[in-house]
């Protein structure tokens, strides 16, 4: 199967492109780690595939609507910062 055929089928089945799904999955995993552990944010960033804590923080804020530290402390409005796996 070609890359484009895979991406088309993936999008049709899951309703989002593969990279969007991957980013959402990474943020879902990171959000769970932030809420359920005291692991430093930089280490969580590395665990979900980010080489830079600042790049991870920007991506997390864009996806979840809150900075990782704010999310960890339970701050901010509920909105997008709800823990659901990307396929839900």
UniProtKB/TrEMBL annotation:
Keyword set includes DNA damage: no
Gene that this sequence comes from: rclR
Keyword Aminoacyl-tRNA synthetase: no
SUPFAM superfamilies reported in the protein's UniProt record: Homeodomain-like
Name of the molecule in the record: Helix-turn-helix protein
Keywords recorded for this protein, A-Z: DNA-binding, Transcription, Transcription regulation
Region spans: Disordered: 68-88
SMART domains per the UniProt record, alphabetical: HTH_ARAC (SM00342)
Superkingdom in the source lineage: Bacteria
PANTHER family associated with the record: ARAC FAMILY TRANSCRIPTIONAL REGULATOR, HTH-TYPE TRANSCRIPTIONAL ACTIVATOR RHAS-RELATED
Pfam family membership, one: HTH_18
A molecular function GO annotation: DNA-binding transcription factor activity
HTH araC/xylS-type domain location: 1-74
